[in-house]
Amino acid sequence: MASVTAPLVQLGLPAPDFTLPGVDGRNHGLSELRGHNGLLVMFICNHCPYVKAIREALVETCRELESYGIKSVAISANDPAQYPEDDFEHMKAYARAYGFGFPYLYDESQAVARAFGAVCTPDFFGYNSELLLQYRGRFDASGRHAAHGAQRELFEAMKQVAMMGDGPLEQKPSIGCAIKWR
């Protein structure tokens, strides 16, 4: 699998609106997902080794961010014809197995991933309370293997967003597997 680096983008852009089905059997929309201090939108998938490397730490980070008023949502947009383990049924089992405390949504049409400009898994978009983009960076220095003891870049950035309303000026792009487009 070739890795892809997410582009750095202009901060301050509004979050694209969406409604998608979740593995919990409900549809979830942008307005209901936001936390008091912001929202972390994560494009992930089940099979990606970059996601697997941070999976447990990501679940814990999202739990911690809730105490700062930041809610999180994960979206999978991969074409399951190319990677069957990324289909909706497997997403349900994956979320249960790893204790996702956030909605895990399926972007079957891939329109939401395109609207956000997502390119890889994982790809992170951190928004403030007004749903303006403040972070488009990586989780930490992990690649295909967890970087134990690495600076918690995503957590620190979103904590700053919660406390100050804006993210850090210096951001390092996420790297991961390319989204599997139809």
Automatic annotation (TrEMBL):
**Organism superkingdom:** Bacteria
Pfam families referenced in this protein's UniProt entry, alphabetically: AhpC-TSA
Which residues does the UniProt record annotate as the domain Thioredoxin? 9-163
Identify the InterPro entries for this entry.
AhpC/TSA, PRX-like1, Thioredoxin-like_sf, Thioredoxin_domain
Q: Note the PROSITE patterns from the entry.
A: THIOREDOXIN_2
Which PANTHER family does this chain map to? Answer: OS07G0260300 PROTEIN, THIOREDOXIN-DEPENDENT PEROXIREDOXIN
Q: What is this protein called?
A: Thioredoxin family protein
Species of the source: Chitinimonas viridis
